[in-house]
User: Fold this.
Amino acid sequence: MDSSNLSSLPEESLEEELEQPSKRSEAPLPTAYASVPLRSPSQSSPQKYSPLDWSGYFDEEKDVSIPDSNDVFHVYMAGTEGPVVFCLHGGGYSGLSFALSTSKIKEKARVVALDLRGHGKSSTENDLDLSVETMCNDVLAVVKEMYGESPPAIVLVGHSMGGSVAVHVAAKKILSTLAGLVVVDVVEGTAMASLIHMQKILSSRMQHFSSIEKAIEWTVKGGALRNIDSARVSIPPTLKYDDSKKCYVYRAQLEETEQYWRGWYEGLSEKFLSCPVPKLLLLAGTDRLDSSKGMELARPLTIGQMQGKFQMVVVRHTGHAIQEDAPEEFVTLILNFISRNRIGPHGVEIPGLRRPLQS
Assistant:
């Protein structure tokens, strides 16, 4: 799960975090939930934390209605040429988690960022059904509604919980034009080991905000996101105004979806390795693979990486949401992945993208 996002699973328990505030200030946990500020946000300049509109990054937004249901999914779109980089956010986040990255990716490829059910502006018959199977079907239904039976080349990019959904979609081998899979900062071993702490972390985070600006400030100062501009565009859709409480609360009710958490990550390594497309795993730290927690579950990935079954890149000096904290590096990695694997609108290399030299 994540902070407005879900996949950012904590690597240590909340107790350890709170007992070592000095350690936390030096290297905040990658999960938004574990980054509990020790004091309330100060009276900073509200302009510094004022919301930014999606239109500064995407070209358009629209609702995609699914036939024979009351489900309506919100998507943000950008770009006119190249393959479609189809982005799935983490638990508690929204499609705008990819906003800053999109402003650059759209120069070489198309981008679609989906608000998963229970998140952002999407509305479904059951917003609490966050089973991986249901979310997979949602993604496939949206792709079909948008592109019909002949979709363009698609690169699935999933962060945290969205990374799990992306893997499960790819493993189904239903998307005929799936050309690549990018998983951002989620590994089965550490994710599974962290699940026992999630309810405590969710309940310990700040629950109410007097304004959207305060929520943005809290998110940045708490260490959940390190890029203020990204927080200014991505945090607003993760909130909703509660008329009864006269304040902003979280849009996603993650604490009520615990029955589905294990299903997001169980068996994820083997499913990832089974996907028959080029694969890229982006990690915010090597502990995701070599932590003593979940070491046995991480072994298949370690072996697979040594055998060259996928590319792995460790992105330093960033939190859990790599695409938000380090958008420029994230864009470079995505575009190089597309170029290296000659992924284009019809399986051809994109003009203007030079293939990196093979080491």
Remarks:
- The domain at 14-340 is CATH 3.40.50.1820 (Rossmann fold).
